[in-house]
Amino acid sequence: MKVIASRIKSTYEFLLITGRAAIVRGPVKNNHILDWVNPLIERGDVQNIVDPRLEREFNTSSAWKAIEIAMSCIPSYAIQRPDMSHVLAELKECLALEMAHERTQRMAIEGNLTTSNISFKMTHLEYESNIVPHSR
């Protein structure tokens, strides 16, 4: 049962990253999202992992961080996986990276920046969540 729960948890995270169905039904065999994504990760092919509806407009570092977080949730034993408070903190860092990337892209398009004077301001993100860490 632990293996199934772990696979379900990581499946949901990859659904968010890829925008794909958890299971693709085939004529001979069904293909689970983890079976699809693992070879892409091994090849370092982040562009084909991330949801194509983003049209490649995302921060690669942020995408890899989200993928690493999802991968950390795969182990069968709970003790090997991060708790939800850690996952949430890591995802907030991904969001901060993505927001900084988006802000820089927007400013560059508007002509307000040159590549030599790009600066970043770290912003504290405050989110409310009903998710509470549980003891293992």
How would you summarize the topology of this molecule?
Blueprint: H1 2-18, E1 23-24, E2 31-32, H2 33-43, H3 46-49, H4 60-72, H5 84-109
Antiparallel strand pairs: 1-2
Describe the overall structure.
- The chain has 136 residues and is mainly alpha-helical.
- It has a single domain, classed as Transferase(Phosphotransferase) domain 1 (Transferase(Phosphotransferase), domain 1, Orthogonal Bundle).
- The chain is 52% helix and 3% strand.
- It has five helices and two strands, in the order H-E-E-H-H-H-H.
- A two-stranded antiparallel ribbon has the order 1-2.
- Helix 1 runs antiparallel to helix 4 (60-72) and helix 4 (60-72) runs antiparallel to helix 5 (84-109).
- The two termini are 16 Å apart.
- Residues 1-8 and 131-136 have low confidence and may be disordered.
Properties at a glance:
136 residues; mainly alpha; Transferase(Phosphotransferase), domain 1; two-stranded antiparallel ribbon; 5 helices; flat
In brief, what are we looking at here?
The protein has 136 residues and is mostly helical. It is 52% helix and 3% strand.
Shape: flat
Q: In angstroms, what is the radius of gyration?
A: 17 Å
Distance from N terminus to C terminus (CA atoms, Å) equals 16 Å
CATH topology: Transferase(Phosphotransferase), domain 1
Task: Report the order of strands and helices.
Answer: HEEHHHH
Q: Assembly type of the shown chains?
A: single chain
Which architecture per CATH?
Orthogonal Bundle
Biggest sheet architecture: 2 strands, antiparallel
* Total tally of structural domains: 1
Strand composition percent: under 5%
Helix content: 40-55%
- The first-level CATH class name: Mainly Alpha
Structural class: mainly alpha
Strand arrangement, major sheet: 1-2
CATH homologous superfamily grouping = Transferase(Phosphotransferase) domain 1
Number of helices: 5
Number of strands: 2
Mean pLDDT: 76
> Could you list the spans in which at least 5 consecutive residues all have pLDDT below 50?
1-8, 131-136
